[in-house]
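Narrative summary of target 7.
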Amino acid sequence: MGYPRKLTRRFRAFDNFAISFTIINIISGIFSAFGFGMGAGGPRILVFGWIGVSVMVLFVGAAMAEIASAYPTSGALYFSAGKLAKRHRGAWSWYTGWLNFVGQVGGTAATNYAAATFIQAYLAMQWPSYEASEQRTVGIAAVILLLQALANTYTVQLVALVNRISVWWLLIGMVVIVSSLVVIPSHHQPASFMTHFVNNTGFSNGMYAAMLGLLVTSWTFTGFDGSFHMSEETVKATVNAPKGIMRAIACSAITGLILMLALVYAIRDYAATASSSAPPVQVLIDALGMGTAKLLLLIVIGAMLFCGLANMTSNTRQIFAFSRDGAMPGSRWWHSVSSRTRTPVKAVWLAAACPMVLIVPGWWSHTAFTAIVSVNVVGLFLAYGVPIFLRLRLDDFEPGPWNLGRYGKPVAGVAVTWIVISSLLFMLPQVSPITAGSFNYAPIALGVVLLIATVWWFATARRRFHGPVSYGSPDEVAAMDLI
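Modeled conformation, tokenized:
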């Protein structure tokens, strides 16, 4: 790929799968967005929407996996965009890289903020006198970011080990939660309950509410580009990275559907649960009692912490690669690698500091925090879409060992179409009446990001950044390998 090797290849096939599976994180995603889905479509969209969106995400994953096999680098999306573009390679690479960076920073911030919120919910359940506050949420999130940065600072083996643990935590945790919701309650909803439709969005159009409900699944299925970003640390990356992407999506789709069905059928009082501060937690309390609910909530919190850690790991590698090509301020700092741990330590701490900057406004206003991180999913999916779109336009695409053959272009076409539709959904109003507190700030946040990137590009970047850098011929680069 034109780079001297600085990172150690110690990620096995399972490790590569583990990072994307952990970032997708069905427990974290479903528990974070379940309440929104109860009002935007209800059980019908929570269940059938999960199935439909999972299929669409598999198309996106397959198209990305084919590109990952051809360009297995830490730069991932922005690198492949620069290589696949026919013209203006620097610009395509620039915008893709910054969308990916901002999306990953927002994802790390949102996941750890959600973890801090659920930790406070647990503390309030354990000690009723405890009073949750926005200030305490920010403080807890800061501590989480610090611990995750410390974990990422040490060796790649430690990160791989933690990700292996996280996979089993998610799978065993899902089995425990589902088994408890199936076996313990004396009452479940009837089989027909999955067709029950609810529209509490405030909009009179049921179809519009149902489309919004698809966001529950779309929000969950983000971050599977983590396998792509870890390519330079994965053995046989041209095969194991694309397989990691596909396996993570497929396993998440199946296990997530099982968890979703268990939660839906365990609902007691639908209206009371939907109006509670944490609907999925209320489902656990009503169905299992306070004691069991508290134990299961610890599984949920653990899943969120693992998700945040994997998010930061993926973001670190994107920062490392983007800086290696000179696209970030202080690039010389961020692409340096520790001689002791063989990890990009400075990039790790930047990947921790940036989410903290996004979390701080939550000290004063949850709405302000939501406005800033709302670009998370939109930024990520647009970054996914750019290289897939460019591959669709390219007639002489040279695939890697893992490829879709003659189905490559049709799959890419479906993937791009879904990315456009889902991105539009994320930017539409989600609650009526529209107020300062309920307004969807995603279009504004995305507009600000693109405006800054555009001004920066035309002011200075276009003269010094021309896309992925080549350090020489394969033989020359091999001689530069530091490992």
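The first strand starts at residue 40 and ends at 41.
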